[in-house]
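Step 1: inspect the first sequence and its tokens.
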Amino acid sequence: MKNYLYILFTVLMTACGHSTSSSTEEVESAELATPEQELIARVQAAHGVDNLEGKEVSFTFRDKQYVRDVFNNAYGYSRSGLNENGEMVIDSWRGDDFERTVNGVTVQVTEKDANAFKNSINSVFYFALLPASLTDPAVNVELLEETKIKGIEYAKIKVTFDEEGGGEDHHDIFIYWFNKETNTMDYLAYEYFTNGGGIRFREAYNPRTVGGFRVQDYSNFEPPSGVELIDMDKVFEMGRMELVSDIVLTDANIN
């Protein structure tokens, strides 16, 4: 999943600064939209995804500050925070240029480590900016049967990724639940296959609007062994999930 946001960043970089006026091609494309595309468009509009384009985004997550800045119509990204030795570590990159500094001094890192640091940061941004990435070119969407959670009706989709353009984790699978009344993304689940693999289910809470975009925190759950990804909502309703962490963003700013 880490690399999917990187694809989103690339798409947004090319769009940054372009006119927002509708072209004939855009109108024709909208007329030919599939039900899945129409659903995602409504959800992205409800979350204010358009307000992310060309904007600086910053927030704090687990005592580290994450920043996406804009310079010359290109995005740059950074994460800063103290390591276990109390040293200030800043990882930053723009384009292909990655830099790590420790207490203000540049340190050399291998290409493998640089990619690992990027992927870690991308993963945080990926979840923080959902549902922005659901229209990435490598995304495949499948409508699933509608369901109810806590008495509320939800549209349900499955997302997979093409190998080409889908990043190193293109085998990962996501399911999203969209509130049919509000068009908000209230739940998501994903199955990953790196580091031994696993499944997680997240419930959104504390929604607030920052710079026109809906920022949400999440309760992060793990299901019992043997549960299928598609059944995560049913298991959640049965109260069989174990809360393993909270995904909380603070000091969020978009401008």
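Step 2: inspect the second sequence and its tokens, then contrast the two.
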Amino acid sequence: MNQFQEKLKKTMDEYVHFVYKITNSFPREERYGIISQFRRASMSVVLNYIEGFARFRTAVKQNFLEIAYGSFKESIYLLDFCLIEKYLSTEDYQLGKKLTDEIGAMLWSELEHLQRKTKS
């Protein structure tokens, strides 16, 4: 992994820890609902990203990054949902949005780079 990819992975890791931290204060009745889904979606982002870089074929790598991107979009919806349901503070939401904005731009850039690579 190059410096850009390491920074992206580090930011994804920070986001997963953020999600785990904020979901600790969610209502107990959401333990098997929103809490579980939000944690799994955020963890899926970084795990699929890492697994993709363990693959040698560009098309396979791209597939894992696309799965990571899908989970990422799911986690953004859950972040927005949790704000509306008042499961998290506006301050926590803003921190989450800052992280997702950064991850989204970087992950999209990685996907575009792989797309160009598969076409050449």
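Step 3: confirm your contrast with the notes below.
The domain at 3-119 is CATH 1.20.1440.60 (de novo design (two linked rop proteins)). The two ends are 21 Å apart (CA to CA).
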